[in-house]
Amino acid sequence: MTARTTESTAPVTDPTRVLVLNSGSSSVKYQLLDMRDGARLAVGLVERIGEETSRLVHTPVASGERRERTSPIADHEAALKAVAEELSADGLGLDSPELAAIGHRVVHGGLKFSAPTVITDEVLAEIERLVPVAPLHNPANITGIRTAQALRPDLPQVAVFDTAFHTTMPEYAARYAIDTETADAHRIRRYGFHGTSHAYVSRRVAGLLGKDPAEVNVIVLHLGNGASASAVAGGRCVDTSMGLTPLEGLVMGTRSGDVDPAVVFHLKRVAGMSTDEIDVLLNKKSGLVGLCGDNDMREIRRRIDEGDERAQLAFDIYIHRLKKYIGAYYAVLGRVDAVAFTAGVGENAAPVREAAIAGLEELGLAVDAALNEVRSPEPRLISPEYARVAVAVVPTDEELEIARQTYSLVHD
């Protein structure tokens, strides 16, 4: 590590800082948090790694002065070194004795990893073995881990898996109805994703209701460009909408969500499309963008207000699928204490929340129009007092959840 630091190198008996890294194929998102109170010390993003137009945006929270640099960043190693330099300039260097661990978001942990895990050679090898079921995500996560290990080989590195929260699903919810030997040989089952968000939000909902998470049944709706629903009974996931990959389930920004598997065969036979072309179609050219050309809910709502019929149909399909999952998970849980909206669309799009709950009054669900219009960074209830089932908006905080799980593992 060559990055300079302005902090003392005197030994710290109980380091409390955690650096959270979310490494994508051409990007690294990061946050540095102090786990004494969960406070953010710095946040940033490196994007377009490997391109001439690479960009690093860094904000130390204490000053709030955003810094940006645009220069070629060749690879993830160069990206993390640049991050280290920015942190050091604020006295928050990676070589600080205050740093307790680095927590890595890893998308797919399969069945083996049901909890945060200190990364060893064996753990890294297993994450690599899961690449065939997460080809777009796990390779980038692995690159980020290896780069961070090279920068701080002495520091605990922890993997926090998107799939871990969903490993509590019973077999009848997790298995597809296909030949068991084939499924087992190729690890085909429903894994679920966005697990750190579902875990965080379900726990915060219990707090809103003044109850222990073990006493609460909640349907969590994580609605961003990627979207997923989960049924959480007493703090444990019992069903979730995403499956072997993040393609299954709700209508998303660019992903189709649920579709008849025979569509793939039909496109191959009739349209002459290759497997790769169908993959791109369902993952990148479907969902809202496939239906109306936009995947930004704000733009879709603007077009609806102007009378755009394609935008209206896309919105209606989105809401119809959402209602189906709310109803299905209500049936799975039997008793529902709350429905929680989170992530970019869930937290900010009041018309989505209103439309998703409309007509579900017989299930005890209702939205107070005035409360629903309130914009706030705080968790809140938007249901009227008479509603039998609470409706909540809970801003998700996956980085804080990753940091908490990481710190809990290395500190205990």
Structure description:
The protein contains 15 helices and 14 strands. The chain is an alpha/beta fold. Strands 5-4-3-2-1-6-8-7 form an 8-stranded mixed beta sheet, with helices on both faces. Strands 11-10-9-12-14-13 form a 6-stranded mixed beta sheet, sandwiched between helices. The chain is globular, with a radius of gyration of 22 Å. The relative contact order is 0.11.
Which labels suit this protein?
412 residues, eight-stranded mixed β-sheet, alpha/beta, disordered N terminus, 14 strands, 19% strand, six-stranded mixed β-sheet, globular, 15 helices
How far apart, in Å, are the first and last alpha carbons? 27 Å
Number of beta strands: 14
Strand order of the largest sheet: 5-4-3-2-1-6-8-7
- The percent range for strand residues is 15-25%
Name the helix and strand elements from N-terminus to C-terminus, one letter apiece: EEEEEHEEHHEHHHEEEHHHHHEHHHEEH
Tell me the major beta sheet: 8 strands, mixed
What integer value in Å does the Rg equal? 22 Å
Rounded mean pLDDT is 93
Total helical segments: 15
Structural class: alpha/beta
* Outline: globular
Which oligomerization state do the chains in this entry correspond to?
single chain
List low-confidence stretches: 1-10
Helix content: 25-40%
Write the layout of secondary structure elements.
Elements: E1 17-23, E2 27-34, E3 39-47, E4 55-60, E5 67-70, H1 76-89, E6 99-106, E7 117-118, H2 121-129, H3 138-151, E8 157-161, H4 171-174, H5 180-185, H6 195-208, E9 217-223, E10 227-233, E11 236-240, H7 262-270, H8 275-284, H9 287-292, H10 297-305, H11 309-333, E12 338-342, H12 343-348, H13 350-357, H14 369-373, E13 380-381, E14 390-393, H15 398-411
Parallel strand pairs: 1-6, 6-8, 9-12, 12-14
Antiparallel strand pairs: 1-2, 2-3, 3-4, 4-5, 7-8, 9-10, 10-11, 13-14
Helix pairs in contact: 1-3, 10-11, 11-13
